[in-house]
Design goal:
Layout (H helix, E strand, L loop, with lengths): L1 H8 L5 E5 L2 E4 L2 H10 L7 H17 L5 E5 L19 E5 L5 E3 L10 E8 L5 E9 L10 E6 L15 H15 L3 E4 L3 E2 L15 E5 L17 H23 L6 H15 L6 H31 L16 H9 L1 H27 L5 E6 L8 H5 L8 E5 L9 E5 L4 H6 L3 H10 L5 E4 L7 E6 L8 E4 L2 H15 L2 E4 L9 H7 L4 E4 L22 E4 L8 H6 L1 H8 L7 H21 L13 H14 L4 E5 L36 H5 L2 H12 L14
Parallel strand pairs: 3-7, 8-9, 8-21, 9-12, 12-15, 15-18, 19-20, 20-21
Antiparallel strand pairs: 1-2, 4-5, 4-6, 6-7, 10-11, 13-14, 13-16, 16-17
Helix pairs in contact: 1-3, 4-9, 5-6, 7-9, 12-13, 18-20
GO molecular function: 4-alpha-glucanotransferase activity
Pfam families: Glyco_hydro_77
Protein name: 4-alpha-glucanotransferase
């Protein structure tokens, strides 16, 4: 019990519940390892007793927690709840974020949103300082209902792409979808910077940095200096454009996979050439302002990029004196590599400018929400963020998922988790900076595995995922920072809340205005009949869609192709006949229900025309009260291949497939814009009526 008490004080679970009524104990070795990653010694009974005594003593003596949250409109008269236990007569002083001070008695209801400094002085002479986060009650909401498209940007090539979709394509897609189809948003995959390698990990969900975008997404021809290259530089650029066309044609016409590394080789060389073109005075001033605004975070990121060029991406092979970003050795090498550091800062600025261009195009096209950017749940352990913010990450730990009905072995995602104690002690500075960076040009932000704001499954190095445990974060503080930064950016927030969700999480997110994610095939009356959930029973505060990047396309679901694919790759855990039968039964049930609602012609469970069935699925989504409806862009052309097949690595070309038609042939952005099938599908959400409000008790399961 002593170990359990010590673990509880640090937010470490000693048991978890994978299903209602089921409790699984966490191995003591896991608890000891996780506590060790939090600098808490629990390696012996004596150490446990000493650590427990120290923790309880510190807790009793604490005047203020490291971070205090105040929600506007939530607090009763008098002191906020986090300060209710302060001794009577404690004097408070607040230094406001933008200057000025407020002292006792504090007008809590009148404090402006922001990150302030709080000081307390008790009558017994004790003093304390804390970060005070004052947040609006809710994140901004969309002005009205909206439909939009969901796409993995790299997969959408145009006639001008260099072998993968880029920010020029995003700008064109937003402009076209907003103007021609009345779309309110475009949601893309994370555009975070990747860890270079041979080959580069193509997953956008295991990045080097979540704070800075990857310059591989740049449209080279849209860099203003491109127009001014001349002589030998112009000739080399023209040759690179020709080689890029070969890459593009290989993907679009020859069945080749998207090769991020090959694309970057060409773009990097082109950008090296463009850097020789002098910036005009205005552009030079804009670059200086960008670097000043991004500060040390950008310098660290660019330094890491320069170090990778010299020593490779495996940080364990770096010289000892540059493994610490604050070491004298790193400072020396940063000076030696100043030109390369400048180059990578310049790339970050160029990418930021093209992100801004895409956001502006979306707004000018009339999109009510705009570009929806995606926040991955973590970063690569050898990447730029993990190097630059080492104190914020738990060494020797990896984020994953516990065993469940779909994966008895659990999951290890290979992403180091943030330390909750380090976040709190810093006033959540790394988290605030991350959100601010992502929200610079976002109309909305999707948060992958949003449950991670509350707790994450930590897996100690060397142990299987089944031997992990949950570590809890201060959800109130995490949400307050999120709401504050979204409020400052005027951005909607969407949480990916699929899978195992602990009780109370969805309610807490909804209270703060964070939308959820509702996928048609998962929406059933699980607490009752088990049948498809009626459209009027769906929640309103969500993005309703038919599928995601990790799930089969709608065409694959309707045809059963996804079962055959998993069978070919040896991923089925049951006999093929059983999987086919269950899948056919589920699809037939949905088709029957769609016909019952008058959304699909015909009778009974027989499979209809594929295109008609896909349109019926999106008509159904329109009937729900969901305030945002997302159309998976590959569904618009009958693509049957998933972008990512969980549980595979080399067996399947994850994150490397272009959008393709039902025949498997890739289609370009120009082809999509001219497609009658796509136009008909994307216009469905704009024409199909649906209820104005959710009925009482509406829910999502």
């Amino acid at each position: 019990m002593t170990l359990a008490r010590l673990a509880a004080l640090h937010g470490v679970a000693t048991a978890y519940s994978p299903a209602p009524g089921v409790t699984v104990p966490v191995p003591d070795a896991t608890v000891v390892a996780v506590l060790g990653a939090l600098d808490v010694d629990a390696t012996s009974p004596r150490a446990i007793r000493a650590s427990l005594a120290a923790a309880e003593e510190a807790r009793a003596a604490r005047l203020l927690p490291p971070t205090v949250v105040v929600w506007q409109g939530d607090e009763p008269a008098g002191r906020p709840r986090p300060l209710a236990a302060l001794p009577a007569g404690t004097a408070l002083r607040i230094t406001l974020e933008r200057g000025g001070t407020v002292a006792s008695p504090v007008p809590w209801a009148d404090l402006t949103p922001g990150v302030h400094a709080l000081e307390a002085r008790a009558p017994d002479g004790r003093t304390a300082r804390a970060t005070l986060v004052v947040a609006p009650a809710r994140v901004p909401q969309p002005a009205g209902r909206a439909h939009g498209v969901l796409v993995q940007l790299y997969s959408l090539l145009s006639a001008r792409s260099w072998g993968m979709g880029d920010l020029g394509d995003l700008r064109e897609l937003a402009d076209w979808a907003g103007r021609a189809l009345g779309a309110g948003f475009v949601q893309v995959n994370p555009l975070h910077a990747a860890v270079p390698g041979t080959p580069t990990d193509p997953s956008p969900y295991r990045p080097s940095s979540r704070r800075f975008p990857d310059p591989v997404h740049l449209r080279v021809e849209d860099v203003p200096e491109y127009a001014y290259a001349s002589g030998a530089d112009r000739a080399e650029l023209d040759a690179l454009v020709g080689r890029a066309a070969e890459l593009r044609e290989g993907v679009l016409r020859k069945g080749e996979l998207i090769d991020r590394d090959a694309v970057w080789v060409l773009k990097r060389r082109a950008l090296e050439i463009l850097r020789r073109v002098p910036l005009g005075p205005g552009r030079a001033a804009a670059l200086r302002d960008f670097r000043a605004g991004q500060g040390r975070a950008l310098e660290d990121h660019a330094t890491w990029c320069a170090l990778v060029e010299r020593h490779g991406a495996d940080r364990s092979q770096w010289p000892e004196d540059v493994r610490d970003p604050r070491s004298a050795g790193t400072a020396r090498v940063r000076a030696e590599l100043a030109d390369r550091v400048d180059f990578h800062c310049w790339l970050a600025w160029l990418t930021d400018r093209q992100l801004a261009d895409a956001a502006r195009a979306a707004r000018e096209a009339g999109m009510g929400v705009g570009i929806v950017h995606d926040l991955a749940v973590g970063v690569h352990p050898d990447g730029a963020d993990a190097w630059a913010q080492q104190d914020a990450y738990a060494a020797g730990m990896s984020v994953g998922a516990p065993p469940d009905a779909f994966n008895a072995r659990g999951q290890d995602w290979g992403l180091p988790p943030w330390r909750p104690d380090a976040l709190a002690a810093s006033g959540y500075a790394p988290y605030r900076e991350l959100l601010r960076s992502l929200l610079r040009h976002a109309g909305a932000l999707r948060i992958d595995h949003v449950m991670g704001l509350f707790r994450l499954w930590w897996v100690p190095a060397g142990l299987p995922p089944t031997d992990g445990t949950y570590v809890r974060y201060d959800a109130d503080a995490m949400l307050a920072v999120l709401v504050l930064e979204a409020h400052r950016a005027g951005a909607v927030v969407i949480g990916e809340d699929l899978g195992t969700v602990e009780p109370g999480v969805r309610e807490a997110l909804q209270r703060r205005g964070v939308f959820g994610t509702s996928v048609l095939w998962f929406e059933r009356d699980w607490a009752g009949t088990g049948r498809p959930l009626p459209p009027e029973a769906w929640r309103a505060d969500c993005v309703a869609t038919a599928t995601t990047h990790d799930l089969p396309s709608t065409a694959a679901r309707l045809t059963g192709d996804h079962v055959e694919l998993r069978h070919r790759l040896g991923l089925l855990t049951r006999p093929l006949a059983d999987e086919r039968a269950d899948d056919a039964r589920e699809v037939a049930e949905w088709l029957t229900y769609l016909r019952k609602l008058g959304l699909l012609d015909g009778e009974g469970p027989e499979r209809p025309d594929e295109e008609a069935a896909i349109r019926a699925v999106y008509r159904f989504l329109r009937r729900t009260p969901a305030r945002m409806t997302g159309i998976w862009l590959p569904d618009a052309v009958g693509d049957r291949r998933p972008q990512n097949l969980p549980g595979t690595w080399d067996q399947y070309p994850n994150w490397r497939l272009p959008v393709a038609g039902a025949d498997g042939r890739p289609v370009t952005l120009e082809d999509l814009a001219a497609s009658p099938r796509l136009r008909a599908l994307l216009q469905e959400p704009a024409t199909e009526p649906r209820p104005l409000t959710a009925p009482p008790g509406a829910r999502c399961v």
